[in-house]
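quick one before i forget lol
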Amino acid sequence: MKNIFKLMAAPAIVAALGLTTTGCSDFLDVEDESSVSDANFPTNMKHVDLLLNSAYAGSHGLGLYAHIYYPEIMYLLDHNHDTFGNYDGRSQFLSWNAQTSNEKLEKLYADIMCWIQYANAANDACESYRPKAAENEIAELDYMQGQALFNRALAYWHAQTFFELESKEGGLGFPIIRVSPTSIDEMMPPRATVKENWDFVIETLQEASRLLQGHNSDKTRATYWAARGLLAKVYMQARRPQEAIPVLEDIFKNSGAQLLDYETYSNSFYADEKYEFNKETLYEIDMSRNTKQEGPWAGFTSGSGMPMVMAPWFVNMASWTSFMTAGGDWVGPTEAGVEASTCSNGGWGNNYVNDFSVKRFGWTLPPTTRVRNVNFDPSKAKRFATIDNFPWVLPENFRAESQRMRDDKKCDPRLFISCAQPYFDTLKDQTGADTWYDLSFTEAASLGLDKHLYFAPRKFTNREGLESSLNMSSGSNYPIVRLADLYLLYAEAIAPTNPTVALEYVNKVHRRAYGCDPETASPYDYKSLNDATCAALGNSQDLLGHDVIKYERWAELFGEGQWWFDIRRYEILENEAKVYPTSTYGNATYLGERCYAQPIPLTEIERYNGNLQQNYNY
């Protein structure tokens, strides 16, 4: 949030410059070189920077981090979340069976293509201005071009995570677009092979790394180490681990990145500038609350609307009057096991954390209903009750056991960074007072109040008030590359030849999660790479129950949009179908390799006049 880019409207400039196939030359044919023209643009470094800003704005598309990406696609594909209802096409992701007409995929695909176009426009501007640049501008121009190439590679990384399958022989990747198109034919390149795609992205990141060498001070922008970190992830996704190893070792030795201590780490996902761009992250999608625009729906904006979709429900402390009169007469439920509504929401609250995810963290307590608090004093409540004086609470023994789960680390502590237990964990309400997380009572009642745990999404949401109080424009940054991620990738890459070193890197991440020094052996250390994990407590048949690398990647990066990246690399969707057998949408069925690569939207094929090849089995 510290240096959000000034001109979120810059993408409009890209279209205006003839960087699409629409002809604008007559309209823009002007003599004034300070004005915007497709004939003379760019004429100075400010022009180049304008287009570079548009490359960064590419990640803020509605189909990406501004609205849809995590809560309506990614969290459902990887089953981090379930939904309270069947709202629209997003439900198809819960069964890994999206259709070619899926409106979410249409927006995702289109916005990735826009991101690529914006990055290419910035790169082209660097190339175009270079012959005119003064000698003292060349170094800065190199830095700008490195950022443009990084953004292009990052856009392709997102595309490839959805629309291809790396291990399929002769599999199709994404169309390769190196420069801004100037004709209809250039706008419709055929799909490259998967190998060609990865070679292109690796080539792009290697060139970005060269141009970004020595640029590491401004982490709000792409840095050399960001490019190297993304390159390592790309090598792993491209099934080239041996090439990832030296890149990762260089990062560990020379970047200065460090694992955060647990206290700092546990507070680093909630829009607090104090924790952003910290010593663990190499690259974050930068978000900032926009007080002048409500949400991202009016166009590009600096903040994100994603948390509105998954905004946690909370207990309305004014609802105490539904249980007791001011005179002390009880009017709430009297029958054991009956629940009552206390919920309110400052957003849409469509999602809750999938029960099977909660159990995979090692949570073993069942759903429970609240009971009357015999110590409630209505005379102290006035308009609002408090968490210390509320008439409807969890049973005392259940609260005590919930606390022991935390204190004794009977489950993975990272559960409570990513998720919140209803009626136990707290956040701030609209008055700034502490309240409990709640659930969507009407929809939960139809699903079965005693059938689900209904843990609330926590990571990237507002703990200090309502999501809507942020103008539907959250400032939570989204980490793309951080050191814990890279430690676990390194463990994976080196495990076949040096399992002892691999285990140590896994344990560094694991120790931090349990509040220990990452560099010192702890009682929580895994003893081997196939030691039992918390996942074994939830499901003895879960592959992650005895694969510490996979489990740690799942738990450490939960809610960060990385697990689908891993599911596809490992090709373990058949296991996930057994771990997550049902959802609000119905039973999950493994349909074979088609589940790993989403369909190319029909709208895109139509734009290609039918010449864009569809993915297999769609």
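fyi The CA atoms of residues 92 and 98 lie 5 Å apart.
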